[in-house]
Amino acid sequence: MRIAHSPISSQSNASLPKCRSGAQAVDSSRPSASQLLAGFTERSILVVFISVFYRKFFLNNISKMSSCTVPVAPAPPALKDLPKVAGDLKTELEGFSSSKLKNAETQEKIILPSAEDVAQEKTHNALIAGVENFNCSLLKRTDTKEKIVLPNAQDVAAEKTEKALIEGIAKFDQAKLKHTETQEKNPLPDKDVIEQEKTQNNLLSGIENFDSTKLKHAETREKNPLPTKETIEQEKSA
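Structure (tokenized):
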């Protein structure tokens, strides 16, 4: 690092005070340390300080920049990797003429709200404004009164009955029960029921086992007899 020293001329040396050590004087041809320090002005000291500071700053930045990795730009895709355009679409795009386009004017339509929308918005805004600007000082203080409704005679009687029933079930003595034997009875049907069941079974079996080959072929004849003269005359006279 080079430090800029201010030149010390012979005249400045002459003007500097001579340092004496005891009775012996210092040789004027050889400048002392005090003479060298006096030669530096405040400006030169500031320049030296700034140069040292910037040198350290640039050395640190250069070391950091050398350690950073510069990102490499990706290689352009090959021609085969590019998306392909269909042949007919390509010919249409190449042969398209903008002179065939027609001039169209854009019309901006601003739809105004209806009367119902305006009324709803006014009501909503008035409601919000009323809530925001409500004056709490207009409220009156009220005391909550708790009323205890006593049960009437019917409620008391019903509660006593229910309580006695629950206590009777909880304190029931099973030793007071008597032993009983269960007898299963299966009464047989009488003759009338048996006959009805037989008749129903025979009817069902006859329908299920019916032989359709025993049926004879029959032709249906539609007859529409015309009225006689007497019938016609009777209808006319009626």
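The first helix runs from residue 10 to 15. The two ends are 151 Å apart (CA to CA).
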